[in-house]
Fold this sequence. Notes:
The protein has six helices and no strands.
Amino acid sequence: MIPAVLSTLTGSLLIIAGLIGCIAPVLPGPPVAFVSLILVSLAGSWEIYPLWLIILLGVISLAAALFDSLLPVAASRLSGAGKAGVRGSIAGMIIGTIFFPPFGTIIGTFLGALAGELIWKRPESRPFKAAFGVFTGTMAAILIKLAVSGVIGFYFIKGTLALF
């Protein structure tokens, strides 16, 4: 069993890292945030949360991380974007996140997708439509991850208060 103070401090850092990971493409946000619930459960001798809730939130956090990979690709396919648009959006997101946080992530995703479509333009492509499709899928994935991490954060706070 770990001390309540240690689980609270470490869990708080994991929640923050998880929320950052929802926007930054470096960390898998929801799974990182989910570890905070495990820490609170360990500190509370597994009596803080029902087992079904821990399993459910674990599965949902993994599903959100999977959607992060699938939604932009699915949206790009629906909008007619090519691989260049998807790769451009990822590059734009990373560059935007590094140089212009937090809004650079959103703007960089769109501009990167547009640049990818324009540079490697196919004759039948519609670059703005494709870029908007990639952008929409990426933003949907970010919102899903933020929602899941927010729910996990709520249960983390609730569980932490139960420890003290």
